């Protein structure tokens, strides 16, 4: 099972590595989109969120405080869903469907990240070929 968990961590984290690279290589268009959603200044927000995603995903993939990495990703995804993808405010039907898809993706990934957080804390360092044990091991109680 350790290999299955490792592959799962890599696949889960790869989504965020790709997103982070998009944030860090497409700063101008991402900043314009961010500002269109009311977040100003856009550039620092895009860079900070890219670095945040990259750090969280790296921790999950490497299994170095993977619980912290999963929690970081959940903390990014939930506000992003509500701030960046408020589909209920869209008037154009096509835009509404697009934003709803992004909203649902972010919420479901946040749920997966929270489940991983709980798994990492509960399972400890002995599962999934992790580099370190969980940072929040005291919560396993």
TrEMBL record:
Subcellular localization: Cell membrane
Signal peptide: none
Membrane-spanning residues: 6-24, 45-65, 71-88, 109-131
Pfam family for this entry, one: DoxX
Entry keyword annotation includes Membrane: yes
Keywords carried by this UniProt record: Cell membrane, Membrane, Transmembrane, Transmembrane helix
DNA-binding keyword on record: no
Membrane topology type: Multi-pass membrane protein
InterPro entries: DoxX, DoxX-like_oxidoreductase
Family statement: Belongs to the DoxX family.
Identification of the protein by name: DoxX family protein
Organism for this UniProt entry: [Mycobacterium] zoologicum
């Amino acid at each position: 099972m350790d290999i299955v968990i490792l592959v799962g961590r890599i696949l889960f984290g790869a989504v965020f590595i790709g997103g982070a690279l998009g944030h860090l290589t497409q700063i101008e268009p991402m900043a314009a989109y961010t500002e269109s959603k009311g977040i100003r200044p856009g550039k620092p927000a895009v860079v900070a969120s890219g670095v945040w995603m990259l750090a969280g995903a790296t921790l999950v993939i490497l299994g170095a405080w993977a619980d912290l990495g999963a929690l970081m990703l959940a903390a990014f995804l939930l506000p992003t869903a509500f701030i960046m993808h408020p589909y209920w405010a869209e008037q154009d039907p096509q835009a509404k469907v697009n934003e709803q898809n992004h909203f649902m993706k972010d919420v479901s990934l946040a749920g997966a990240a929270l489940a991983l957080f709980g798994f990492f804390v509960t399972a400890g360092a002995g599962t999934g070929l992790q580099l370190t044990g969980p940072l929040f091991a005291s919560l396993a109680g």
